Amino acid sequence: MSTTTLLARLSAFGCGALVAMVVLSPRQELVAASSRTIHTCAAADGTLRLADPATPCQPDERRVRLQIPDKDDPECKADDTRREKLEQRLKDLEARDRRGTLRGRRVVAPFDVVTEKGGRLLHIEEQNVTFYNVDQKPVVWIVADQSGGMLHVQSVDGNRTTSVIAQDKRAQLVIREGDHDRVDLGRRNNGRYGLQVFGQGDKVIAYLGQSEAGTGLAAITDSAGTMKASMYIQSPIGAGRLQVANAAGTMVGIMQAGGSGGVSPFQLSDGTGKAMVEAGLTPDGVGVVRAGPEFRGFGVGLVGLVPSMIIGKP
Fold it and tell me: Could you list the pLDDT tens digit for every one of the 314 residues in the chain?
């Protein structure tokens, strides 16, 4: 909006008209004539221009006569402050109009959003947006496509990244260092939910989530991905199971619950996985401890035979 268009819409006359003409004119001084009348021609867009009283306006203009008071009128002196404020507002509006921020505009992607100094803030394409930091390095991406959406954030050097993904069957939070996943939390394409922590060689070293059967599972491995401890629910009986492995990965300790009791809910094995100690309950609910490797009975009928079983009394 130009200066002349804005002030031409003022409805007040008198000193207000004089103020308008002072600003509307290209900063030229207006000398009040004895007639106290200013002749102007108004264009269709509201722009006023000074005109000679004897010269007709253009065909697409109309004549507008403005009455002004004497220069000694006290009302005009009181309007000086208002005139200065109006001039300042007009300067601000003209500056905003030059920068393109005065009116809303529709822009078709791709395009960049920049600062007043020309620094790039955003790069917008049809299905993604890139954000830049003060050093003009890309650090944030937003993607929205037919499969869903993704938010990707990275450090300045690009070595550490975090992604939030909701696409197709996936809904995940992924943290990476370099080219390697470190943490993966959410729902995967196989439909199972869980938390995975990765070690060297992209091996899963810790997992907490759902098993293939859909029950709860917690597992810990060494850096090579060898299982060292796990806890899960046995299907289909629904009983819990805890197992621990030695350095070689052989399960040497197992604690589990049977469906209705049982003689070996707890077991210790040697380095080869052979059971050496078992403890549990009989079907009648009596405690039993058996020691290997022979698991002999009480030695009844055999002189000097050391029993390898202890059983409680009902």
Answer: 343 433 333 333 344 444 344 334 433 334 434 446 888 999 888 888 888 888 999 999 999 988 776 666 555 555 677 778 888 888 887 887 777 666 666 778 899 999 888 899 999 998 999 999 999 999 999 999 999 999 999 999 989 999 999 988 889 999 999 989 999 999 988 888 999 999 988 899 999 999 888 889 999 999 888 889 999 887 766 778 899 988 888 888 888 876 555 556 788 888 888 888 888 877 777 888 888 877 766 554 444 555 677 777 76
Tell me the chain's radius of gyration from C-alpha atoms. 44
Torsion of CA 273, 276, 277, 280, to 10 degrees: 60
- From 266, 230, 227, select the one nearest 250 (Cα to Cα): 227
Task: Give the strand order in the sheet containing 62-67.
Answer: 48-50, 37-42, 62-67
pTM, rounded to two decimals: 0.56
Q: Alpha-carbon torsion 114, 120, 121, 125, what sign?
A: positive
Segments making up each domain of the chain, as ranges: 3-99, 106-145, 234-314
Residue 33: DSSP 8-state = P
Q: How far apart are the C-alpha atoms of 90 and 27, rounded to whole Å? A: 13
At residue 260, the 3 state secondary structure works out as: coil
Those residues with Cβ within 8 angstroms of residue 204's Cβ, 6 or more apart along the chain or in another chain:
196, 197, 198, 221, 225
